[in-house]
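thread: overnight batch results

M.L. [08:02]
morning all. the overnight job finished for the chain we discussed friday. pasting input first so we're all looking at the same thing
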Amino acid sequence: MILSLVRSVSVAEKADISELSLPWKTRIVLSFISLVTDYTRRSDGTVNRLLLRLLDFRFPAIQSLTPHISSTTDVTLDPARNLWFRLFYPSSIPTGEPLRVIFFFHGGGFTFLGPDSLGYDIVCRRFARKLSAVVVSVNYRLSPEHRFPSQYDDAFDVIRYIDQHPSELPFSADLGRCFLAGDSAGGNIAHHVAVRACKSSFEAVKIRGIISIQPFFGGEERTPAEIQMPVAPIVSVERTDWCWKVFLPEGEDRDHWAANVSGPNAVEITGLEGFPAVILFVAGFDPLRDWQKRYYEWLKRSGKEADLVEYPNTIHAFYMFPELPESAQIFSEISDFVSRKAKAP
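M.L. [08:03]
and the structure it wrote out:
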């Protein structure tokens, strides 16, 4: 059965970045993020990690004493590759109510940020609190120091570790109701890890759905959105081209199956059993939107269950800005999706 549910949260159709209206606070943060990525990227394909450490504010794990702030714990799997994850869980857990499990993969073009970056620490706390869930936020290796498929390997290894060591999670965590979630590069990782999971066997982990927030896909072709919005906030065409160049294997172009997931070299999923339902979020002012919609259409053609939710009047990474109305809306959509899929047989 194919479920193709398309929802547009606003009827307005905009694409001209000059028409975009954002609060001053959001504009300041967007400008800072753009400056950080531009000044730490080098033309030779390396990153100034020293400068980046000074500008990427990190937040320690904490044990919360209030019901409004999620508690966190860091767990290390492999010190040699700095593979660890941050656990987020509500400080107030309803008696007898099992917690869903969200495996979260952060964005940053495979190159930047981590689970302890301030923005992602805040986002995962919201996931834990609003979804009554345990969130496993993965610290995967970053490019260009670690190219494809390091990020996919690390993400999958964390899921396999949790499957083999369920005691790492709170006793109320239900591994039979797991979800993969990620934004931007993390959405890309979530897809490819789901494919790998379908070809593997787990003892306890059952993946019920994928929460794909503006996933980072691409290709050699320039889409209408990329042509129309080459200098959009955060994901300008120049920045995304650079990220693909330092992530993909040497000599490969953006039509590699990791980037152009629905393109000519795509990994076929039509006959892949157990591929979970997907809810996909797309924004009108995101230059990646056409690639994301192609992903949705490809899922439908492949016979997979998919929901598409469009926010025509907002930007890439909008959900990380609580001052934007769409930020509250997306968490409501995600909550409905998770509740629906968690109850499925």
